[in-house]
Design goal:
Helix 2 runs antiparallel to helix 5. 39% of the residues are buried. Helix content is 55%, strand content 15%. Strands 1, 2, 3, 4 and 5 form a 5-stranded antiparallel beta sheet that branches. Strand 4 and strand 5 form a beta hairpin. By secondary structure, the protein is of the alpha+beta class. The longest helix is centred in the middle third of the chain and has 29 residues. It has 2 domains: 83 residues, no CATH class; 148 residues, no CATH class.
């Protein structure tokens, strides 16, 4: 029987989203009844990046699935599944990924706003937490980071609107992306929610909606590739 791998989130007590399955690492679970995407069966994503959209808990796992499998656009549902290995250090992983996306766009933002340090400070707040991941660091950085990122977000929206009246489409997208990523990075530094990481990870894609589809696709592809590498590294560390 073919076995495939995937990724999924579960709650702290190893329960599924609906709470009707109590997972035990390494133990196969078999679904009884019909199989239907988003409704019935064991769900997971083939790519770890896609799993960020379905953050139903704080614990992130590499899983195996077999039996009957139905694929959707970004996830699948299977009749049999088991948690294979936990991706440790998720909080730091998500923040690192948010920072990576932010740093990639920061240069373009600062070219437009050389005197605006808000995006950089938001990123630095997240990096400070990575270097010293404790509650005290979060408390000290949280207020300034959120304020800086929120202001940068507003500035970038204005930049996006005004640039629409010029030929600076690429610069507009970069500024929007930088602010969005910085905001998400700051949120990740203050809170462990994986949804913040997903927001930061997809910032480049969202920002480029009005730009060329090729650029949007390239940004998403790069983010997906980097996140998969980061996850693989954490899994290998075990």
């Amino acid at each position: 029987m073919k076995v495939i791998k995937g990724y999924k989130f579960v709650s702290d007590n190893l329960k599924s989203k609906e709470g009707n399955c109590e997972w035990v690492v390494g133990e196969w679970k078999k679904h009884k009844g019909n199989l239907k995407l988003c409704s019935s069966g064991f769900h997971a994503c083939v790519h770890p990046f896609d799993a960020l959209k379905y953050n139903y808990g704080n614990r992130f796992f590499l899983v195996e699935a077999k039996g009957k499998i139905i694929y959707g656009d970004d996830k699948f549902v299977a009749s049999e599944m088991r948690l294979l290995k936990e991706v440790k250090g998720c909080k730091a992983l998500f923040v690192r990924f948010a920072v990576w996306n932010s740093r990639k766009c920061l240069k373009h933002f600062e070219e437009l706003y050389p005197d605006d340090e808000r995006s950089r400070k938001g990123i630095e707040a997240a990096e400070e937490w990575l270097n010293n991941p404790c509650d005290a660091t979060i408390t000290a950085a949280e207020s300034a980071a959120r304020s800086a990122a929120s202001a940068a977000w507003s500035a970038a929206w204005y930049a996006a609107w005004s640039a629409a009246w010029s030929a600076a489409s690429a610069a507009r997208s970069a500024a929007w992306s930088a602010a969005s990523a910085a905001r998400s990075a700051a949120r990740s530094a203050a809170r462990s929610a994986a949804s913040a990481a997903e927001s930061a990870a997809s910032a480049a894609e969202s920002a480029a909606e009005s730009a060329a589809s090729a650029a949007r696709s390239a940004a998403r592809s790069a983010s997906r590739k980097v996140f998969k590498q980061m996850v693989a590294k954490e899994i290998k560390k075990g």
